[in-house]
UniProtKB/TrEMBL annotation:
This is Glutamine amidotransferase. SUPFAM superfamilies: Class I glutamine amidotransferase-like. InterPro entries: Class_I_gatase-like, Peptidase_C26, PuuD-like. Pfam families: Peptidase_C26. GO terms for cellular component: cytosol.
Amino acid sequence: MGRGSEVLNGSEPARPVIGLTTYLDRARFGVWDTRAGLLPAQYINGITAAGGIAVLLPPQPVSAEIAARVLDGVSALVITGGRDLDPEGYGQTPHVETDRPDTTRDSWEFALLAEAMRRGMPVLGICRGAQVLNVALGGSLHQHLPDVIGNSGHRAGNGVFTPMPVRTVAGTRLAELLGQTCQVQCYHHQAIADVGAKLVVSARDDDGVIEAIELPGEEFVLAVQWHPEESPEDLRLFTAIVAEAVRFERARVSE
């Protein structure tokens, strides 16, 4: 249950449960070297510090029924960072710099997103998550940003995030949350090209690259190309998704 419901002693409302998608990749721990469902702890820390409960949703074979059953247990969905989407999903052939696709994760996240949006559930996309949202609604991607802007400043490599300023678009939800400008941490070599149906651009950087998109209206569907989990001193986006999860859970309980 969410914050709108009281715990048994009637004094402290329960925290909302937030589902976060994960990688399915090779991992080493102890004596093991195997594929695992995993997610950097920074995402989990961001949700819990903002007052939510983080639940991991690892990639697996999916159907509309499975996606619905999974989302019955959460009050908001966060689509996290990861490898590049399969370009076939937006009608392109792979660029030489595009990652080998993980079609299981692609299908998993597209199904979860479709069900979340059908329910009016709050959605926050992060990096890859912004690209998932855009492609799901018919948009396309620049497969290798240096080909477009002439530099690799958005992804320095070796796991080093690039701090850069972004400017929000007036009148958007993101501008309301972050103000006119914000310093963010970037690590992406792809970016949104054609914007998906009904989505609006809510932030760009100094190179003109789209750094955030959102769905206008009352429902919270917002995605950023940067990594807010790498700025633990700034919890505004995580606080926003937790607050929206509270509202969603209250509405669900009252039905």
